[in-house]
Amino acid sequence: MKIKRLALVCASLLVLTLFPQPWTASSATTPLTSGLPARSAQEISAQWKKLMQPAADYENPYASLPSVSKPYAPGSLKPGYIRDGVNAVNFYRFISGLPYDLSATASLNDQAQHGAVLLAADDDFSHEPARPADMPQAFYKKGYESASASNLYAYYGYEDHTMALSIDAYMEDSDTSNLAEVGHRRWILNPALKRIGLGQAASESGWLYTVMQVFDESRTKVPDYNYVPYPAQGAFPLEVFGPNYAWSISLNEAKFRAPEAKKITVTVVRQSDRKTWTLNSKSGKVAEKGNYFNVDTNGYGSGTAIIFRPGGIAEYKEGDRYQVTIRGLLSKSGTAQTLSYSVNFVRAAK
Are residues 162 and 238 in the same domain? Predict the structure, then answer.
């Protein structure tokens, strides 16, 4: 079968009111690193073997079958299938220097199942799906609450582990409909995230829909960080990053003022040949490849993000090292801040 993958993101937006400040910006002397731990190649390889080897029978993922027509039933997924999805999420958080102890709860899994059934009932791949005429109002309400506050994914065919694929797609997030926000990725890399829910249902036409409840912020000990870069500082696995993927930096809004796009400049330097990309608001045209830059201040994940992509890279290679520098940010107190970190691409599968 022809494989087609789709992803949508929907987010509650954080509305920020900015007031003029009485002070004048001063300059910081030392570039800021992310404040998160950098992983080593050895650590990444070990976690790849532990977390990125999905083992569940993806052709038979259900403990109880969903019903996408009357009488509607949410069904449930087998624990091993859910575990494969949770493991993938935890791997992406691990390589990003974040806590990687997420778990899927029964209540959130059930909510996600209602959302997946609602999408599959009429093949309505939307964060605001319409109610099928014969669907009970209570079922629709729960499904709508799920679909409108989650990451969504659609896949045609049973050729692979759909739940694991969905996590990869959320983290890629670089198609033209998602490039400007990379919202799926930002929700998964929200430092405050602790609990998720995963659901899946198949439509009568053969489409598979997965739902990830990801708006939780129940972590009691959130790491003290400056920003969350992706790809992360230090070693980073080639297996999960391609040449047309967006780079992103989610800022800790407790430490930075809301950035002005026209004042931000991103410089990316490939260390092997000193090839340099300078990206700013002039590179704001959304396209499948090439130079790109955006500042998104909407409330995806932990908040404001700087999104960029150096164009013209045929592939990232093992041993490639890229230095990233971002200028034009201000701290909460008005001090000019420069961010700087290095990404070293490595092989996770060894």
Answer: no
